[in-house]
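Because showing beats explaining, we let one protein speak, sequence and backbone structure tokens together, and leave readers to judge.
___
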Amino acid sequence: MAAKIYTITSGKGGTGKSIFAVNLAAALAGLAKKTLLIDADLGMSNIGLMLGLENSKITLHEVLADEANVADALYDGPNGLKVLPCGISLQGFKKADPARLKDVIAEVSPNFEFIIIDTATGINHVTASSIEVCDEVIMVLTPEITSITDGSKMRVFSTMLGKEVTGIVLNRTMPVHDEIYREKLVSSVDMNILEVLPEDVSIPNSIAGKSPVVTKYPYSEISIAMNRLAALLCGIKMPEPEEGKPQKKQKNEKKRVVAAKLPFSQSKK
């Protein structure tokens, strides 16, 4: 059975796209799903650095240059995850042919249940190659006007390539970005919000430790959200949170920020 393939993209840098891809893949693997994480950001690859694979001699660069076999470029990651990292050299970027990505996917897909592809940011031929080989696109946005605007362009770009955006992950949110804010955002971009991830100090700590936050800080708020999304993609129903003080506190917080506006909202004259 072929793998379910998700390409993770964004319209601009700084959204946390690669961090999200690493943690989603690790969360899926943690649910005992055979998962492969591919770093297809050929020019600005970071996943190898995040997982301690930056010194790998054989990477996606060599595979796409037809200088190595895919099997030799697969490395072990957390939770039993398999990782196909990309090299960090510009020479490797120069010789890699992104058009060969479809051949790579065809070869590895029968061996996995999920494949997560982290692609380049923005509209370019590398991103196009990653979108064309996937089943669904997940877009990572932050609650900023530039991210939201560029995300809308990426949605059109994906549609042009014959792929619809499954939904967006709203990342690096603050308490002011409450439920009412998110409802306005959904209506403005006409895309489903799959999950909301908070700005979390555990992220830089996990990067420094070269481990996904879902394994290094499994009880953090962002790890719980990542596992919830992974379960959703697997069709696993997560238990509802118990009623209690945390929910009451959240309601009070909602009242306090009810007047928050989207960054691109126009004031009425």
